[in-house]
Amino acid sequence: MHKLVVGALISALFLAAPVGTVQAAQGAKKASVKKVTVKKARVAKAGVRRAATFSAEPRDRIVRRVVTERGKRKVVYQRVTNVSAAVARPTMGDLAGLNLTRDPLDLKSNVALVLDQSNSEVLFEKNANVALPIASITKMMTGLVVVEANQDMEEVLTVSEDDVDRAKFSSSRLNVGDRLTRRNMLHIALMSSENRAASALGRNYPGGLPAFVAAMNAKAQELGMNDTRYVDSSGLSKQNVASARDLARLALAAYEHPILREFSTDPKAIIERNGRPVQFGTTNGLVTPNSGWEIGLQKTGFINEAGRCVMMQAVVEGRAVIMVLLDAKGTAARVADAMRMRKWLAALKPPGFSDVTSGGGTPIGVMAGSGGFGSSIAAPRPAAGM
Question: Fewer beta carbons within 10 angstroms: which end of the chain, N or C?
């Protein structure tokens, strides 16, 4: 009987062992499945995050800003689009189809013009008769109006709340309450493209900013800039428009004023702000001493609607020229286009040689999509979308 009981217990143990082993194996399998599932879920989640990171769709975020209104600090919250995650928006030139125009130099700028300064002969042009946003090139007209109004250059002007950019929230090194002379305001407006300085210059004109903008438009008409319109003194508005031909006229007029030549081509300068010296620098790397360029007047510009722009007077191989490039996609592209243009000018036949062509037998000055500087050639004028 005892043997039977012991035998039964041993049998029970042997029978129980496989069950425990199976259960352990099943438990291990479940754990393995769980780990795999969790891992897959993590990978999937990471994939979603990566997809979101590389998504072309702009994402909005709420930004807290502290502003000063009538001497009182106020906290405001604004919805801002994450531009870095968004596809670059087309410029006004792109919307007008100007990016479809080809040229023999393969320029990345939608608009280009090169003018011989001595005789106003057009050496090269591309879509030069189309009015487009010109961004901070506007400031050259601002400077011209200030200088020709003979306002006191040593008068101290104060940056006010009215000078703060509430539309594009552009950055500035000037704070509300900063005090600078009109001379220094003009200097950094042309050299460093300071928007608040340009606004202060317009606001401190007799009659205020509306009168100043009216004077800008009147000067444009006087110069024959018939495709030009100004609505502010800084160029932040896309409604400030001009053609390359008009900007060449502006450059010729501005070049007559030594102060505009000096201030616009300074690589850097020490400016007194509130009685203390502060260093400001140029927005155009081509005017720096080691650039290899000889530039006598210049102004750059950028807003999203205008792309990267530049207007300048330069001497290339002994020939003084006015060069205008509008709507390049990036600063590097704008600089590269200027370099291409300079190389082409250096290899150009002497003045008066008339058989310079665009590769297809058409004189450069009458390229498709263009109308010469003062030329009687009628070129199709694409709709500028504004």
Answer: N
The 10s digit of each residue's pLDDT in 163-214 is: 999 988 898 999 999 999 999 999 999 999 999 999 999 999 999 999 999 9
* Torsional sign, CA 373, 378, 379, 380: positive
**How far is the first Cα of the chain from the last one, in angstroms, to the nearest whole number?**
109
Q: Where are the beta strands (DSSP E) in the chain?
A: 59-69, 72-82, 111-116, 122-126, 132-133, 156-158, 179-181, 241-242, 268-273, 276-281, 295-303, 307-316, 319-328
- HEC string for 176-190: CCCEEEHHHHHHHHH
Domain architecture of the chain: domains with CATH: 92-366 (3.40.710.10)
pTM for this predicted structure: 0.72
Residues with catalytic annotation?
Answer: 136, 139, 193
